[in-house]
Amino acid sequence: MNILEALNWRYATKRMTGEKLDEALVNEIIEAARLAPTSAGLQPFHIVKISNPEIKKQIQPIAFGQPQIIESSHLLVFTSWDKITDEQIDSVYNYTNNERGVSNTATADTVAGLKQLFLTFTEEEQYHHTAKQAHIGMGGRNCGGGSVRGGCNSNGRFQ
């Protein structure tokens, strides 16, 4: 199934079967979210994978009592950074450069520009920016979930 077919099949699942997803599939979906094309490649969010039924029961009341919270195999919670610090920018670019075999001097101007840019944002503006980037990550998760196994079937389970 190509990505457009997967996206056409995607929909909001209102109920889950309780069937446990394979951990490798869940990790692939998380990796798709991590690779989503966020602003400046910062990926300013964390993804918390929750499969513990007791923790999901504690979350359900603050998630408007949605039954899929406790019926799901895994619950992925996206948390965005409160603010963007120089250390976070350095960490992301050091990691990315290392993975790609690129020297830090090759991206030094970009890193300096990002640090200067985010100095002009208030903390509230930084938070709103990172929250929007978390939504992009969730979109990447949707694409990954759909293309990994063909999306959800009519029972709301990944195929």
Descriptive overview:
The chain is mainly α and 159 residues long. The protein has two domains: 3-82 and 132-144, NADH Oxidase; 85-120, no CATH class. Helices cover 53% and strands 8% of the residues. The chain contains seven helices and two strands; from the N terminus they run H-H-E-H-H-E-H-H-H. It has helices at residues 3-9, 23-34, 53-59, 67-71, 86-100, 108-119, 123-149, and strands at residues 45-50, 75-80. A two-stranded antiparallel ribbon has the order 1-2. Helix 1 packs across helix 7 and helix 2 crosses helix 7. The longest helix is centred in the last third of the chain and has 27 residues, at 123-149. The radius of gyration is 18 Å and the shape is globular. The termini are close together. Mean pLDDT is 85; it is low at 147-159. Its EC number is 1.-.-.-.
